[in-house]
Write the structure tokens for this entry.
Amino acid sequence: MSIPPDALRRTGGVAIKRIVFDEGTIAHRVREMGREITAAYPDGDLLLLGLLKGSFVFMGDLARAIERPLQVDFIVVSSYGKDTTSSGNVRLLYDPATDLAGKHVIVVEDIIDTGRTLQRLLSLLSARQPASLAVCALLHKKLAPPLPEVRFVGFECPPAFIVGYGLDHAENYRHLPFIADLG
Ligand code: IMP
Ligand code: MG
């Protein structure tokens, strides 16, 4: 995929090695995922629970692609800082204000790498008696054994470290409208 002419302006001059998913490809797939979720939950209360910060862009687009009533909340777990490998440590920094009991809860995640973040989080959330608990991830690196809760996945992701559309490196590049490998 070709690199947009305004990319250098957005990155502050840092060259992008490769566009992994462009804006149009992401938009098309997110609309499809919205339809999948709409069809999968014919009734009941639905709550989208986004993992901050990485899910913030995806959440906005996904919520608008779902054609049924829903509620939105967020959860904050500790991040890796500047390290680009997963430590497996999960710390809850913000707990959702919404009551999960009796609701269909979909955890919205930017990317599943080792899946360790999610595994810890899911056991915490299932103790709160949701009617069902599923995960919707935009990207999956398929490095980890599959978790049964991961019901909706946007794209399989190459084993590179990628940024954009919510994903960061040391808090930068979340605002890029495409997903890129900086190399
Ligand atoms: P896991 O616990 O190893 O599955 O890590 C998942 C989290 O690591 C994601 O929510 C991201 O915040 C971060 N992460 C993993 N891979 C990447 C990447 O390629 N780019 C940016 N963030 C990543
Ligand atoms: Mg991150």
